[in-house]
Specification:
mainly alpha; 2 helices; about 55% helix; about 0% strand; flat
Amino acid sequence: MENGKQPIVPFLSNEGTPYDSNHLGLTKREYFAGLAMQGLMPIWSSNNPSHISECVKRSIMFADELLKQLEKPQE
């Protein structure tokens, strides 16, 4: 399973191993997008549907880029 689809707080089985992809909870991608959206909302705060849509798109873009950068080996 790719990193962005893994749970932010994985639930462990009784054996101490992570459950499979049928976990409950947010994925790392969803969590990071939500954090990015919190930062963008003051900039895009509007009832205009196109502004809301743009805020969501940018939040996902930032989350995806963060996950991409985290996959790179550390220098």
